[in-house]
Amino acid sequence: MHSHSPMRKIHTKKDRHAQAQREVTGDPVLGKEHANRHKWEIKQLIRKYGGKCVLCGEQVNLVHDDPRQATRDHIIPLSKGGRDTFDNLQLACSQCNQAKGATLPDTDTSL
Ligand SMILES: [Zn+2]
To answer: Of 3 and 55, which is predicted with more confidence?
Structure first.
C-alpha cells in the first residue's frame, strides 16, 4: 500500500543537496545576479573609459567605500526617464556620483 517511489526519494535528495550548496554562497539568488550584472557593467565601463571618472577625470579603483570607487552613473537619471541599461551608463567615481545625486534638481517639484 505504500506508494513510496525510490526514484522520487533519490530526486529529493539531489534537490536538497543542490539547495544546500546554494546556501553556502550566502547570497539570495536574485541579489547575487543583480550584483554580478553591476560588477560586469563596471568592468565594461572601466574598459570603455580607460578607468577614468568622466566627471573629474581621476583614476577610479575597486576599493569599497573609497571616494574613487568605480560606480555606474546614469547618463540620463532614472528619475528623468533614463533606462537602467548599459547604453545609459558612464563611469564615475563614488564621490562624483554622490555629489551629482545631491545636486540634482530633481527635488524641485514646484509646478
Ligand atoms: Zn569623479
So the answer is: 55
Domain count, the chain: 1
Q: How far is the CA of 105 from the centre of ligand 1 (A)?
A: 19
Residue 92 CA to ligand 1 center (angstroms) comes to 5
**Which stretch of 1-5, 32-36, 62-66 has the lowest confidence by average pLDDT?**
1-5
In the reported structure, the alpha carbon of residue 58 is separated from the centroid of ligand 1 by a whole-number distance in angstroms of: 6
- Please give the distance, rounded to the nearest whole angstrom, from the Cα atom of residue 97 to the centre of ligand 1: 7
18 Cα–ligand 1 center, Å: 43
**Number of neighbours of residue 63 by Cβ within 10 angstroms:** 11
The tens digit of pLDDT for each residue in 28-56 reads 555 888 889 999 999 999 999 999 999 99
What CATH number is associated with residue 99?
1.10.30.50
Instruction: Compute, in degrees rounded to 10, the torsion defined by CA atoms 77, 81, 87, 89.
Output: 10
Q: What is the H or E stretch that residue 43 is in?
A: helix 29-48
